[in-house]
């Protein structure tokens, strides 16, 4: 089968940063489904894994984790899917990625594709959707009862990105007042189009902007960009006994003592944790994606796909990585055109 991956960890502009190769089609394990891929999307984790570092891979390391496709074969212990089922999922960072014609994934972290979405629209959603759902409803403990959240608010830092775009929608579905950070007119518009009630700049004082808009301190903060850069600003505006969740590792030490006076809770979210460690609640990712599929089909959520690049090959994926690394992307980029593989 055709696949795109790497042997050397290089800047994206290098010819061998991503390469086309023919590799053996994988065989499903006991709980695995073998999926014929129809579309994949790129995420910051793809560029971080690919980025320059020491080491060399003898076997092609295949990147990519978001995917949508059709079940081709099932393992002996699979109970939830059968050949012909259309699925979407975010995969496991501990296994080969989805940038290939066929891919195997544990059934417990996959779900039936939303009927209303194309394969491209669906492929844009698993990783960001799971990250947003787990970050808000599991890590921050936000209720999904809209009435319970009627007087509560959330500040989403990086609201126009992949996670931010769907986090806004989920937060509004849960009844929260949503304040999103954005730095350009087009990202402000995108955040508002996805449901943000207010937008502020992440380059200016959060406290001053919130006060100017007459907004209360947010009960929750979901940090999707530069945790250490925004650390003191978050501590300044979070409500007493509020909660903060970040998905971004820190590059420099931060002063956790700033959490104390307001008794603030700080948690981290990493979407791959459940599959990486085989946690007892691993199947909740199947359940979350199933619930989200229902919300997509009921038109309570919309896909955050903004650009599709074809055909599926190393050149297309390099273009997607370059766009993502520019830091100016809005929503999600998908690579499709698997039917154009030669």
TrEMBL record:
NCBIfam families to which the protein is assigned, alphabetical: adh_fam_1 (TIGR02817)
Protein species of origin: Metabacillus sediminis
Segments forming domain Enoyl reductase (ER): 14-335
Lineage top rank: taxon: Bacteria
UniProt family annotation: Belongs to the zinc-containing alcohol dehydrogenase family. Quinone oxidoreductase subfamily.
InterPro entries per record: ADH-like_N, ADH_Zn_typ-1, ER, GroES-like_sf, NAD(P)-bd_dom_sf, Quin_OxRdtase/zeta-crystal_CS, Zinc-ADH_QOR/CCCR
UniProt keyword terms in alphabetical order: Cytoplasm, Metal-binding, NADP, Oxidoreductase, RNA-binding, Zinc
PROSITE patterns (alphabetical): QOR_ZETA_CRYSTAL (PS01162)
Protein name as annotated: Zinc-type alcohol dehydrogenase-like protein
């Amino acid at each position: 089968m055709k696949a795109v991956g790497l042997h050397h960890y290089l800047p994206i502009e290098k010819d061998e940063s991503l390469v086309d190769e023919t590799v053996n089609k994988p065989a499903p394990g006991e709980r695995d489904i073998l999926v014929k891929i129809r579309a994949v999307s790129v995420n910051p984790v793809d560029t971080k894994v690919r980025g320059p570092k020491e080491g060399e891979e003898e076997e092609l390391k295949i990147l990519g984790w978001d995917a949508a496709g059709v079940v081709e074969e099932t393992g002996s212990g699979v109970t939830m899917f059968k050949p012909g089922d259309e699925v979407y999922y975010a995969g496991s960072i501990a296994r080969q990625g989805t940038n290939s014609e066929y891919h195997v994934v544990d059934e417990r972290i996959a779900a039936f594709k939303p009927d209303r979405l194309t394969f491209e629209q669906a492929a844009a959603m698993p990783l960001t959707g799971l990250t947003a759902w787990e970050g808000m409803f599991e890590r921050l403990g936000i209720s999904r009862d809209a009435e319970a959240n009627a007087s509560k608010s959330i500040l989403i830092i990086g609201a126009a990105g992949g996670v931010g775009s769907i986090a806004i929608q989920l937060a509004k579905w849960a009844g929260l007042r949503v304040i999103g950070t954005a730095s350009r007119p087009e990202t402000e518009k995108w955040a508002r189009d996805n449901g943000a009630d207010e937008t502020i700049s992440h380059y200016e004082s959060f406290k001053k902007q919130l006060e100017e808009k007459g907004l209360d301190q947010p009960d929750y903060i979901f940090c999707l960009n530069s945790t250490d850069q925004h650390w003191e600003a978050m501590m300044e505006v979070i409500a007493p006994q509020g909660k903060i969740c970040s998905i971004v590792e820190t590059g420099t030490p931060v002063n956790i003592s700033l959490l104390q006076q307001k008794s603030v809770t700080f948690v981290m979210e990493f979407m791959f944790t459940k599959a990486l460690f085989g946690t007892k609640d691993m199947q909740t990712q199947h359940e979350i994606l199933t619930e989200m599929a229902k919300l997509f089909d009921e038109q309570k959520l919309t896909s955050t796909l903004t650009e599709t690049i074809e055909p599926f090959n190393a050149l297309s994926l390099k273009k997607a990585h370059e766009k993502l690394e520019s830091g100016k992307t809005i929503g999600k980029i998908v690579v499709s055109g698997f039917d154009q593989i030669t």
